[in-house]
Write a structure and sequence with these properties.
Layout lengths: L5 H9 L7 H12 L5 E2 L10 E3 L4 E6 L1 H4 L15 H24 L3 E6 L6 H22 L1
Parallel strand pairs: 3-4
Antiparallel strand pairs: 1-2, 2-3
Length: 145
Amino acid sequence: MDRLSPDRRSENMARIRSKDTAPEMAVRRFLHAAGLRYRLHRVRLPGKPDLVFSKWRICVFVHGCFWHGCRRCIDGTRRVKSNTEYWSGKVAENKARDARHKAALEGAGWTVLTIWECEVTNPAKLQNLAGRIRRVTSRAAGNRR
């Protein structure tokens, strides 16, 4: 049973953005400060990755824990208490779609990296992401010579 009226719930859901979210902005600021340059939300790529390093064929997705079913968060402490049947199905569909997009990108020769909303507040996880991007770019640069 939802504690909010349908109109109020609709208002809340309408305010949830798919681009320029707080976790995405934190990742973007960190990578930019680390000297890494990227493009945003390339619509021609499957799943419209949040960050794209075209020259190196790297895509980064910044996944919200609730919407994409982070195992550490959703199965752990943040469970849905109302309309659970709908939300569990919705999250399962999102996870299946994410897997399809990742497979399509990797099949086209892209490296796909994912960082979760819960990892964005951890500086070590952001450093790890930047390091993974640098390793892929330096490996690719070595192959071009």
